[in-house]
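User: Quick one: structure for sequence A, then sequence B.

Assistant: Sequence A:
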Amino acid sequence: MKKITSSLLIMFLQTFLFQTALAQDENKALVPLPSLDDFTRGEDGWGFGLGLTIEYETAYEGSDEFEFELQPAGAVQWRKGDNIFYWAGEALGWRGLPADTWLLEALVGFDEGREESDSDKGYLDGLGDGDEGVELVLQARHTFSADWRYWLVGRVVTGENGNLGLFGVGRRFGDQIDGTGSEINLVGVFHDSEFANKDFGINAEQAAASGLDETRLSSGLRSVGVDYNYRHNINDNWQIYGEALYEYYSSDVRSSPIARSNYEAEIGVGFIYIF
């Protein structure tokens, strides 16, 4: 009787593990990274995800005020082989695998700019609203192994308000290939003078209106940071995800009167329904 029970248990475990592996193969993400959503379930054609995120974050770059904010989440995606084209909020983009160890991504997005009313305490009074603008984002990740356990990442943001670059390393946790699990990235962020002064500079007119010292920043290191991403499939349709970000500013940025805090931080949790 014990032998029969043991055999049945082994058969059950083998069946469960086979079905789990089969489900993962059927839902293989383009790249198994939780920071990159893939709603196509591993198949060519359309993928849709729609949800909501609640974020607790700094009110603006350099702020010491925090606020809760609700944001829509999800995307419309179309997959063809190793390429995904997507529309997510104010961004239209593409990501693809030209090789097993390379992920490339390009998107056009919209920067809403900073508003004077973003500070409830009036710290931005007299500075006016920041300029809105269109941005082009180019990103590349190169992994050291086919399972995307470790990688290098580089990103360039260029647009009407200057240029920003990000360079770092990342690690993925877990063995899932469906895009769930967790990952962490350590990065350094650099900006040119135009991008730096967009957020932290104060010209003569703004100085006169606000009473803050006129400030002009040069290009260089903006910050060092760490971000953590988590994604989990609750069932066939519902997905939960989370992100935590901490960014410590360079001494040049911290010297600006706008930077009332030495860091930027954000934490967010959201749910997405996958159609």
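Sequence B:
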Amino acid sequence: MDPANDTGISEFLLMGFSEEPQLQPLIFGTFLSMYLITVFGNLLITLAISSDSQLHTPMYFFLANLSFVDICFTSTTVPKMLWNIQTQSKVITYADCITQIYFFTLFAGLDMFLLTVMAYDRFVAICQPLHYMVIMNPRLCGLLVLGSWVLSALHSLSESLMVLPLSFCTVLEIPQFYCELNQIIQLACSDTFLNNMMRSKPSPPYPNPEWTFYPVED
């Protein structure tokens, strides 16, 4: 049966890393341990910085924000993957998928913005050491973090809203353990020109493997 557009789809299937039943406990244990180490490690960094007044400097302020964002970033994808493995289900609803795309893009963008801000902080510390505390004052640090959140939120919102008008084919399997934006766009049956243009990436290679070609008679 040829795939058809389905504008009323309600769920996707996350295929994950492997469909082998014997590998699922290993995958579950590996990612659970990595997730717990990531969360508790970043949480300890945040608590250490907030509890020690000597660490209340611009560099550690940005580091605490980065640790918080890292916790949120991993929490957007790994818990859902662990839940799917535990329940032996691959289903994620359409609404949850769009929500996951939004927060994944939000925190990924925040990571990049905060790393850029931290690089600027080190630049000022090296090039303007005598004026460092005057330039990197608490007001500027707060504005830099706030600006990072605003820019990331706007970028994530625009990416997520661009997915909503798309219609999808009957094949809704995502070869990832989370709703990856590029994979969602490739599953769409409608025109994805604007999505690809916003992401500055070319369209999927043509011809589409779902198309059927018939010989032309002379």
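The chain has a mean pLDDT of 81. Residues 24-198 form a domain with the Rhopdopsin 7-helix transmembrane proteins fold (CATH 1.20.1070.10).

User: Thanks, that's what I needed.
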